Amino acid sequence: MSTNNEQQLNNWWAEGDTPVHTDSRVAYYVDAHSTFLAMCSQFLMARQYIYVAVWGVSPLMELVRGTDQRAGPDGSPEQETLLAALREEGLQQPEIDFWCSHDLTLQAVLGYMVSKGVEVKVLIWASPEHFSHDDPKAAHK
Question: What pLDDT is recorded for position 132?
Fold first, then answer.
Protein backbone atom coordinates (compact mmCIF):
# COMPACT_ATOMS: atom_id res chain seq x y z
CA MET A 1 0.00 0.00 0.00
CA SER A 2 1.28 3.46 -0.76
CA THR A 3 2.11 6.02 1.91
CA ASN A 4 -0.67 8.31 0.65
CA ASN A 5 -3.28 5.54 1.10
CA GLU A 6 -1.95 4.78 4.60
CA GLN A 7 -2.31 8.43 5.59
CA GLN A 8 -5.89 8.48 4.32
CA LEU A 9 -6.76 5.35 6.33
CA ASN A 10 -5.22 6.78 9.50
CA ASN A 11 -7.10 10.09 9.18
CA TRP A 12 -10.55 8.75 8.27
CA TRP A 13 -12.56 10.24 11.14
CA ALA A 14 -12.24 14.01 10.77
CA GLU A 15 -11.29 16.57 8.24
CA GLY A 16 -11.07 20.27 8.98
CA ASP A 17 -12.41 22.18 11.93
CA THR A 18 -15.80 21.74 13.52
CA PRO A 19 -18.04 24.64 12.50
CA VAL A 20 -18.91 27.20 15.14
CA HIS A 21 -22.47 26.92 16.49
CA THR A 22 -23.79 30.13 18.01
CA ASP A 23 -26.97 28.56 19.38
CA SER A 24 -25.27 26.10 21.77
CA ARG A 25 -25.45 26.39 25.53
CA VAL A 26 -23.36 24.57 28.10
CA ALA A 27 -23.98 24.36 31.82
CA TYR A 28 -21.64 22.73 34.32
CA TYR A 29 -22.99 21.06 37.44
CA VAL A 30 -20.80 19.81 40.23
CA ASP A 31 -23.25 17.68 42.16
CA ALA A 32 -26.32 15.52 41.68
CA HIS A 33 -28.58 17.93 43.57
CA SER A 34 -28.13 20.84 41.17
CA THR A 35 -28.00 18.51 38.16
CA PHE A 36 -31.31 16.83 38.98
CA LEU A 37 -33.00 20.16 39.71
CA ALA A 38 -31.89 21.50 36.33
CA MET A 39 -32.88 18.30 34.53
CA CYS A 40 -36.36 18.38 36.04
CA SER A 41 -37.05 22.00 35.16
CA GLN A 42 -35.64 21.55 31.63
CA PHE A 43 -37.71 18.41 31.09
CA LEU A 44 -40.84 20.29 32.21
CA MET A 45 -40.10 23.12 29.77
CA ALA A 46 -39.62 20.81 26.76
CA ARG A 47 -42.13 21.36 23.98
CA GLN A 48 -41.07 18.91 21.25
CA TYR A 49 -38.71 16.24 22.49
CA ILE A 50 -36.56 14.98 25.35
CA TYR A 51 -33.65 12.71 24.47
CA VAL A 52 -31.63 11.29 27.34
CA ALA A 53 -28.52 9.11 27.20
CA VAL A 54 -27.53 7.88 30.64
CA TRP A 55 -26.19 5.04 32.71
CA GLY A 56 -27.02 4.24 36.30
CA VAL A 57 -30.61 5.41 36.19
CA SER A 58 -33.72 4.18 37.88
CA PRO A 59 -37.24 5.23 36.83
CA LEU A 60 -38.12 5.90 40.48
CA MET A 61 -35.09 8.12 41.05
CA GLU A 62 -36.26 11.39 42.59
CA LEU A 63 -35.10 14.41 40.61
CA VAL A 64 -36.45 16.92 43.14
CA ARG A 65 -37.47 16.46 46.76
CA GLY A 66 -37.82 18.20 50.07
CA THR A 67 -37.90 21.98 50.20
CA ASP A 68 -36.84 22.18 46.55
CA GLN A 69 -40.27 20.78 45.72
CA ARG A 70 -42.41 22.12 48.57
CA ALA A 71 -40.81 24.93 50.56
CA GLY A 72 -43.81 25.37 52.86
CA PRO A 73 -47.59 25.41 53.01
CA ASP A 74 -49.52 27.08 50.20
CA GLY A 75 -49.39 30.84 50.61
CA SER A 76 -46.36 30.80 52.91
CA PRO A 77 -43.49 33.17 52.04
CA GLU A 78 -41.17 30.18 51.52
CA GLN A 79 -43.55 28.51 49.06
CA GLU A 80 -44.22 31.78 47.24
CA THR A 81 -40.46 32.30 46.85
CA LEU A 82 -40.12 28.80 45.36
CA LEU A 83 -43.02 29.41 42.95
CA ALA A 84 -41.51 32.74 41.88
CA ALA A 85 -38.17 31.01 41.20
CA LEU A 86 -39.90 28.34 39.09
CA ARG A 87 -41.71 31.03 37.08
CA GLU A 88 -38.45 32.92 36.62
CA GLU A 89 -36.87 29.75 35.23
CA GLY A 90 -39.61 29.65 32.62
CA LEU A 91 -42.00 27.01 33.94
CA GLN A 92 -45.65 27.55 33.04
CA GLN A 93 -48.47 27.21 35.57
CA PRO A 94 -49.51 23.63 34.62
CA GLU A 95 -45.93 22.44 35.12
CA ILE A 96 -45.61 24.36 38.39
CA ASP A 97 -48.84 22.70 39.57
CA PHE A 98 -47.38 19.32 38.59
CA TRP A 99 -44.12 20.19 40.41
CA CYS A 100 -46.01 20.97 43.61
CA SER A 101 -48.42 18.04 43.56
CA HIS A 102 -46.51 14.97 42.32
CA ASP A 103 -43.47 12.97 43.28
CA LEU A 104 -40.87 14.25 40.84
CA THR A 105 -39.37 10.90 39.89
CA LEU A 106 -37.78 10.46 36.50
CA GLN A 107 -40.68 8.21 35.47
CA ALA A 108 -43.37 10.65 36.64
CA VAL A 109 -41.79 13.69 34.98
CA LEU A 110 -41.09 11.98 31.66
CA GLY A 111 -44.52 10.31 31.72
CA TYR A 112 -46.17 13.68 32.29
CA MET A 113 -44.32 15.15 29.35
CA VAL A 114 -45.34 12.22 27.12
CA SER A 115 -48.97 12.91 28.12
CA LYS A 116 -48.48 16.47 26.84
CA GLY A 117 -47.33 15.17 23.44
CA VAL A 118 -43.58 15.56 23.97
CA GLU A 119 -41.50 12.82 22.33
CA VAL A 120 -39.34 11.11 24.96
CA LYS A 121 -36.50 8.70 24.19
CA VAL A 122 -34.07 7.32 26.74
CA LEU A 123 -30.91 5.41 25.89
CA ILE A 124 -29.79 3.47 28.96
CA TRP A 125 -26.26 2.15 28.87
CA ALA A 126 -25.24 -0.82 30.94
CA SER A 127 -22.38 0.10 33.23
CA PRO A 128 -19.90 -1.80 35.35
CA GLU A 129 -21.28 -2.61 38.79
CA HIS A 130 -18.71 -0.40 40.55
CA PHE A 131 -20.23 2.63 38.72
CA SER A 132 -23.87 1.83 39.27
CA HIS A 133 -26.06 -0.64 41.12
CA ASP A 134 -29.04 0.05 38.89
CA ASP A 135 -30.27 -2.62 36.51
CA PRO A 136 -30.56 -1.20 32.96
CA LYS A 137 -32.97 -3.98 31.90
CA ALA A 138 -35.30 -3.23 34.81
CA ALA A 139 -35.07 0.51 34.07
CA HIS A 140 -35.98 -0.19 30.43
CA LYS A 141 -39.14 -2.07 31.47
Answer: 54
